[in-house]
Amino acid sequence: MGEAPFDRMPRLVEALADGLARDLDRSYALFGHSMGALVCYELAQELRRRGERLPAHLFVSGAPAPHLAPLVVPIYDLPGERFYAEIRRFGGLPDEVWRSEELLALLMPRFRADLAVTGTYAYTERPPLDCPITAFGGEEDETVSLASIEGWREHTVKAFRRELFPGGHFFLNEFGPRILAVIGDELSS
């Protein structure tokens, strides 16, 4: 909590790649939800640029394909109450958090920084990844369209799988066991 949060994708990905470099001598996979999906994609691209081992599989969840991500309207710079309203619309935060002014004061700057990572994201066209991609999405997600989930297909030369679940942006809170089963199935095949 004492560290300044990352608020731009390049700096975040560089730090992740530096931190993971010594542990890439064995097979691994990457999973990310929402902002994390784009971070995992950019991390895989950065690792490839550095000549490192690519993930055996990239699992992305609740996020538009990278080339479509800039179409999502950024909210990180909205004024206070409008920002809170947008965060509430996404769901995912328990009522207990919303009832605690102290906790909100602690968390909201970090949410703004996280949302600035994606809100300022600039896609750079590069060759597709040489690893399979599985994309998870919520059928009622108002932020991430089904077409933008399907768009992940363009970012791999290997197999692509799309799995949809009932629910909005945080469908994974309810369907975690099913998502883990898909991940296990993909990694064991």
Which tags fit this structure?
189 residues; alpha/beta; 4-stranded parallel β-sheet; 7 helices; globular
Descriptive overview:
The protein is α/β, with parallel strands linked by helices and 189 residues long. The protein contains 7 helices and 4 strands, in the order αβαβαααβαβα. Strands 1-2-3-4 form a 4-stranded parallel sheet, with helices on both faces. The longest helix is centred in the middle third of the chain and has 19 residues. The radius of gyration is 17 Å and the shape is globular. The termini are far apart. The mean pLDDT is 93.
- Give the CA-based shape: globular
C-alpha end-to-end distance: 39 Å
- Report low-confidence residues grouped into runs of 5 or more: none
Mean pLDDT, rounded to whole units?
93
- What portion of residues belong to β-strands? 5-15%
Going by helix content, strand content and strand pairing, the class is alpha/beta
Strand order in space, largest sheet: 1-2-3-4
